[in-house]
Write a structure and sequence with these properties.
It is built from nine helices and no strands. It has 186 residues and is mainly alpha-helical. Helix 2 runs antiparallel to helix 3 and helix 3 crosses helix 4.
Length: 186
């Protein structure tokens, strides 16, 4: 019997040490999933704790495979994070049809010399409006397809594609501004 099996057995018997091991095993991954959607640390932490607590209190949700359990918890966190975004007043989906120019992928100006750092990218994603940030996070970090994102956010798939394209365009703009600032002060 492996450690994970022992942890699951302990969780099913409400052993605090097993519950703590379970929490430690999944907290970071679940937090990252929630944070990728919400971009608010406190909110992501609360979502993470709610998800893990739900599984600990409802042992029928436990899965025998550790990786499957991680995926389940992360999916729960993403769903709760999306619900939290919907409750916010500033989460508005821009209505409209996809114009031909909006759907084309921008290749940029060919500025591939300087690659932005991870902190610059995180900062730029954090500056995006909620709808763009959540769609980009679900697409890039959770590897969801546009159809899945549309179902989760309860919006049209073509709107998801347009919002994704616009979000990526804004992200590129923020990163170019940051790069210009670096060059100006270098």
């Amino acid at each position: 019997m492996n450690d994970y099996t022992e942890i699951i057995r302990g969780v099913r018997h409400n052993r605090p040490s097993a519950q703590m091991k379970f929490y430690d095993m999944y907290a970071a991954a679940v937090y990252r999933s929630a944070f990728a959607v919400t971009a608010h640390g406190d909110e992501a932490e609360e979502i993470m704790q709610d998800c893990i607590l739900k599984v600990l209190s409802t042992t029928s949700l436990l899965h025998e495979d550790a990786e499957a359990m991680r995926r389940i918890l992360c999916r729960m966190a993403v769903n709760k994070a999306i619900d939290a975004l919907r409750r916010r007043k500033d989460f508005v989906v821009a209505a409209g049809r996809c114009e031909e120019a909006d759907c084309e992928d921008d290749d940029g100006d060919g500025d591939t010399d300087a690659t932005p750092g991870i902190d610059d990218i995180r900062d730029a994603i954090g500056r995006l409006p909620d709808i763009y940030r959540s769609i980009i996070s679900l697409r890039l970090f959770e590897e969801m397809h546009f159809g899945e994102i549309a179902c989760r956010l309860n919006i049209n798939p073509s709107t998801v594609r347009v919002q994704y394209t616009r979000g990526i365009s804004k992200l590129r703009t923020y990163l170019k501004e940051k790069q210009n600032d670096y060059e100006r002060y270098a």
